[in-house]
Structures are given as C-alpha cells and as structure tokens.
Design goal:
The structure holds 2 protein chains of 2 kinds.
Chain A (H helix, E strand, L loop, with lengths): L5 H41 L4 H11 L17 H29 L1
Chain B lengths: L1 H10 L14 H33 L5 H4 L3 H27 L6 H22 L3 H11 L2 H17 L3
Helix pairs in contact in B: 2-4, 4-5, 5-6, 5-7
Classes of the chains: A mainly alpha, B mainly alpha.
Chain lengths: 108, 161
C-alpha cells in the first residue's frame, strides 16, 4: 500500500467528498424530475381534469382547454443542447480533477 | 455601522428591476442586472490583482501603489464578493422566473455559476488549509472563466428564441 502523508490524505478526503457532492447534485435532480414526469403522465392518462384545482393547474401550466400539452418550450437535452450541457459538466469535473492533480503533484 | 449600511445599500441594487411595473420584463431586467453587476464586481478586482502581482514580480517603482495596497485590497475583495453575490442571486431569480423556457445553456450557466460561487465563498470564509488551497486553484481556473463568458454569450444569443 502506498504511503501518504496526513496532509495528502486530508486533501484526498476533501476531494473525494466534494466529488461525491457534485455527482449527487448532477444526478439526483434529473432522476427526481424524470420520476415526477412519469407520475404526471400516468395521472393524465387515468383521470380527466375536473374541478377548481384542475382548472387552476391548467391555467398555471398554460394548457389549452382540450387538454393538449405544449411541450415545445421545455428543455430538450439531446443533440447540440446535450453537447453543451454534458460538455459543461465534463469541463467542471475535469477542472476539479486537474486542480486536485496539481495539488497532489506539488505535495509529492 | 457604516459597513452594514453599505451592505444594505448593495442589496437594494436589484430592486430597480421591479420599478417599471408596466414593462412586464422584470425577469429579463434581472438577467441584465446579473451580468452588469458581475462585470462591475469582477473586472476591477482582476485588474488590481494582476497589477499587484506584476508590481511585486517586476519590482517596478512606478507601480509602488499596487505593491502596497494594504487595506485597500480587502475593500476591493469585499466589493468583488458583494457584487458577485448580488449577481448570483439576481441571475438565479431570473432563472426561476423564466424556468418555463429553460434550456441546456441556462442549466449549464446555473451549474458553472454555482461552482464558481461556492468555491469563492469557501475560499473566503473557511479556515481549513486544504480547502483554501483547493478552492484558490479552482476559483482562479482560466478555463472556467472562459466557459462562463462563452455560456453568457450563447445565452444572450439564444434567449429570444
């Protein structure tokens, strides 16, 4: 097992902790949003919208009276936009990794 | 007392976005405030920092004032932090108000702003030696700044679509 000084060990611990938080921040919200979308879709198929609250919800979401959903304005994470988003995430992770590498190299 | 008064005044900066109630472009104004305040808070700080480093490394006597900034540097630093905090929250509010039109450029912009903001605040307000070292390197990464500027330009170009 390679020997690390307590200083290097602490830096590695901090980097691992920050990476974990970053990974959770990037993965949890999309997963929850997708789950939420599935639930809404299921409910839309099962029930017809009636009553005050349903009407209010339709007004807030901007849906038309015949129940059509306008998904055109929503984020589409595919194609060029997907490249931008995933490129940004990869750039951030790479920068954090590079920073960590620089510190560790300096300490060794 | 004066310090808190000025902090309070700085927090009022985004309010003019709400002044013209009939315009209906409050959220758009918040976006412009975020950009303006970010530029105002960052450019003088970068300029003073670069000049100070240059003055120290070159030993040029004409740059004496930059070499011995002393407490002035702290004022500039606090100004940079305050302005960027205002810009960050104005930008996030702009994003929340226009979340219906969210696209991948806006999400990328929000992510990179959060990374830079978090590293900056950790750098300033934590005393841990390891975190300070890590965040000093991360906050000053040229690649992240270039990426932020590119995303802002892309966002401005595609915002009307």
């Amino acid at each position: 097992m390679p020997y690390y000084s307590i200083y290097t060990y602490n830096i590695m611990k901090s980097i691992i902790f920050l990476s974990l938080i970053l990974i959770l921040a990037v993965t949890i919200p999309p997963a929850l949003a997708e789950d939420d979308d599935d639930k809404y879709e299921e409910r839309d198929h099962d029930e017809e919208r009636e009553g005050v609250f349903e009407e209010m919800q339709e007004k807030i979401s901007g849906e038309s009276e015949d129940g059509e959903r306008h998904d055109d304005d929503r984020a589409n994470v595919g194609g060029f936009s997907g490249v931008i988003l995933y490129g940004t995430i990869i750039a951030i992770v790479a920068t954090i990794g590079y920073t960590a590498f620089k510190i560790l190299k300096k300490k060794k | 007392m004066n310090k808190f008064f000025f902090i309070f005044l700085f927090l009022l900066i985004p309010i003019p976005a709400y002044a013209d109630h009939d315009s209906g472009d409050i959220s758009e104004d918040l976006g412009w405030i975020a950009i303006g305040v970010g530029v105002l808070g960052t450019l003088p700080f970068i300029f003073i920092n670069k000049m100070r480093r240059y003055a120290i490394s070159s030993g040029n006597q004409s740059l004496y004032a930059f070499k011995h900034l002393g407490s002035t540097y702290k004022i500039v630093l606090n100004f940079h932090i305050m302005m960027n905090c205002i810009g960050y929250f104005a930008g996030m509010l702009h994003g929340l108000l226009l979340s219906k039109y969210m696209d991948s450029i806006s999400i990328s912009l929000a992510i990179i702003m959060t990374v830079l903001m978090t590293s900056g605040l950790l750098l300033r307000y934590t005393s841990s030696r390891h975190l300070t070292l890590f965040n000093r390197l991360l906050h000053g990464q040229f690649a992240l700044v270039i990426l932020l500027i590119a995303l802002i330009i892309l966002h401005l170009m595609t915002a009307d679509d």
